[in-house]
Amino acid sequence: MGKRNREKRAAKKRNRPRPDATKPGHEPDDFWVPPTNLSAGLLANTLLAAAREHSMGDTNTAAACAAELSSSRFARDQRTVATGAGIALNMVLTSLWETGWLPADAWEITRRNSDAASVSLLVDVIAEDIDQYNSSTVDDRWAAQVQRLGATVWWNRDSPHLPQWAERAGVHFELALRVTITLMAALMPLPELPRIVPPPGTASRRSAASVSGVDQKILARVRALLAKAESTQFPEEAEALSAKAQELMNRHAFERALLDADTQRQQAATSTRLWLDNPYVEAKSSLVATIAEANRCKSVFYAKLGFVALVGEEMDLEITELLATSLLVQATRAMVAEGSHTTRSGMSRTRSFRRSFLISYAVRIGERLKEAGARAHDPSEDARLLPVLANRSRVVEETFRSMFRHAVQKSTSVTNGAGWDAGRAAADRANLTIDRQAVNS
Questions:
Q1: How many degrees, rounded to 5, is the angle at CA 404 between CA 401 and CA 407?
Q2: CB 406 within 8 Å of CB 300
Q3: pLDDT tens-place string over residues 389-414
Q4: Alpha-carbon gap, residue 225 to 248, rounded angstroms
Q5: Taken in order 115, 121, 127, 131, is the CA torsion positive or negative?
Q6: Boundaries of each DUF2786 domain copy (predicted)?
Q7: Rg of the chain's alpha carbons, rounded to an integer?
Q8: pTM for this one?
Q9: How far is residue 328 CA from its own chain's centroid?
Q10: 173-187 and 40-55 helices cross at what angle (nearest 10)?
């Protein structure tokens, strides 16, 4: 091809109409170099198209797009480019909320699959997203997640966010654009999840679960028991103290159920998600499922994403989440303390040992929790308690089935007897910890 023909093709490519990257089924053939007179909205489409190509495996597009939009050709239009980046990020985030994802979910999946810069940018985008809504239209649970992420608008709202983020992160504008594109590319393909909290702008504060969680006075007593359990040098005393803490929580749950019986309060179920860290995610999910069952909740494991979805009454969910998080820490520490394992021929058996360890640990923990629940149960209250628990179980089951119509049961096999024995012994020594400080450590 002659030089003149190449120039004509390049000019035609630069001036062709820009397809809408947000339309389903759009698959741009190659990166398009936009003319300099485009609006922020059309630049947002350019960034979205680059992100879509990146998500489909074209890793060169993000760098090419970022380099072009940060070049001297666009030096005078950096504000417009940055505004377009903000529009594109907001569009992707809004789409994510509409498919059932929550702020904590977006943060968890990003920190697992992307770098620290992407996580930092995501937190800011979440802050900017919620800031545009009246607080009365944001569900309490949504607002609590945003607060836990530390997502606040720290930048000057009179100027686009991205250049200010780049300056704060100590990176140049080109890299900021590349992070923008790769972050959107990571979020775009995420699957739809059951909606458990209404997105901002579509809720009222009253739409948050109205049932209060664990009574703070009870929680203070539990924390005191667990503090003693953590500080003692005697395993038997630690086990007795931590088991007493779980028994106290169960008794509190039953007392609340009796109060429901007296007030004839309508039973309700909600859902939450507990993300798990690698390795041995499947075995860890067994521990979460066991704890959930002991606390009157149901669970579904999302193996490809790495979290367990829990369904139950709100207080039961809080007990499950706190206890599961603490016991996962304890189980991991006990597992690592067992060291490496090899066969007589020198072949490593560490992976099978640790997997079997965690499964056995889960089974024994389930037995201990049921024992604690039995001690908390007063048979003389059955006439009032059992109908409430039966009704709650029915509501939880109905909610679970409506959210997870295609869930299937899956059995887990054990291939290492030594791991099974060690896991059971470790579970007997475990503290049934539900202290928030342990959760956040």
A1: 105
A2: no
A3: 788 889 899 999 999 887 656 655 55
A4: 10
A5: negative
A6: 217-255
A7: 26
A8: 0.76
A9: 16
A10: 60
Asked if 103 and 149 count as a contact pair (C-beta separation under 8 A), the reply is yes
Q: What is the DSSP-derived secondary structure letter of residue 153?
A: -
Q: How many CA atoms, within 13 angstroms, populate the side-chain half-sphere of residue 426?
A: 27
For residues 274 and 290, give the distance between their C-alpha atoms in angstroms, rounded to a whole number.
Answer: 14
Angle at 213 between CA 207 and CA 217, to 5 degrees: 145
Per-residue pLDDT tens over the stretch 257-301: 777 666 667 778 899 999 999 888 999 999 999 989 988 899 999
Q: Does the structure show a pLDDT above 80 at 188?
A: yes
Q: What does the alpha-carbon distance between residue 360 and residue 424 come to, in Å, rounded to a whole number?
A: 5
Residue closest to 66 by CA, chosen among 166, 160, 179, 178: 178
How far is residue 23's CA from residue 45's CA, in Å, rounded to a whole number?
A: 10
Dihedral sign, Cα of residue 340, residue 342, residue 348, residue 353 = negative
Q: Which of 440, 419, 225 is nearest to 331 (CA)?
A: 419
* CA nearest to 256, candidates 267, 272, 270, 242: 267
Q: What is the pLDDT of residues 150-167, one digit of tens each?
A: 999 999 999 999 999 999
> How far is 427 from 100, CA to CA, in rounded Å?
35
CA atoms of 430 and 372, how far apart (whole Å): 14
**Cβ-based burial of 57 (10 A; exposed 0-12, middle 13-18, buried ≥19):** exposed
Q: Give Cβ neighbours of residue 108 (< 8 Å, ≥ 6 apart).
A: 275, 306, 307
Question: Which of 404, 152, 435, 135 lies closest to 273, judged by CA?
Answer: 404
List the 270-275 sheet strands across, edge first.
270-275, 307-312, 298-302
Q: Is 297:396 a contact under the CB 8 Å cutoff?
A: yes
Q: Which residues pair with 348 in a beta bridge?
A: 342
pLDDT tens digits, 17-63: 444 444 444 444 445 555 556 799 999 999 999 999 999 999 899 99
Residue the block writes with tokens 């001036």: 15
Q: What one-character-per-residue DSSP string does 299-336 give?
A: EEEETTTTEEEEEE-HHHHHHHHHHHHHHHHHHHHHHH
Q: How many CB atoms lie within 10 A of CB 63?
A: 18
Smallest Cα–Cα separation from 61: which of 100, 27, 38, 15? 27
Closest CA to 360 of 410, 430, 408, 276: 430
CA 209, chain centre distance (Å)? 19
Confidence of residue 16 (pLDDT cuts 50, 70, 90): very low
**Structure tokens belonging to residue 219:** 């929680």
Tell me how far apart the terminal alpha carbons of the chain are, to the nearest angstrom. Answer: 63
